[in-house]
UniProtKB/TrEMBL annotation:
Native source species: Equus asinus
Cellular component GO terms, alphabetical: heterotrimeric G-protein complex
GO terms, molecular function: G-protein beta-subunit binding
Protein name: Guanine nucleotide-binding protein subunit gamma
Keywords from the UniProt entry: Acetylation, Cell membrane, Lipoprotein, Membrane, Methylation, Prenylation, Transducer
Boundaries of every G protein gamma domain copy: 3-68
Entries under SUPFAM superfamilies matching the protein: Transducin (heterotrimeric G protein), gamma chain
Subunit structure, interactors included: G proteins are composed of 3 units, alpha, beta and gamma. G proteins are composed of 3 units; alpha, beta and gamma.
Example of a GO biological process term: G protein-coupled receptor signaling pathway
Amino acid sequence: MASGASVLALQRLVEQLKLEAGVERMKVSQAAAELQQYCMQNACKDALLVGVPAGSNPFREPRSCALL
């Protein structure tokens, strides 16, 4: 029984390694350059860089209601 389980585990491992071998690879330098280019192109849309307009900020301090 134990040898059957180990054979099954090894078959699964071989299948996983075949899947990983088929994955298309790219150089880290190319991926970093593409990531940098994407970040520069979308920087104007990034709320962390340009801020959130005061009117649409859901986290702004609530206005107090003053009744006189």
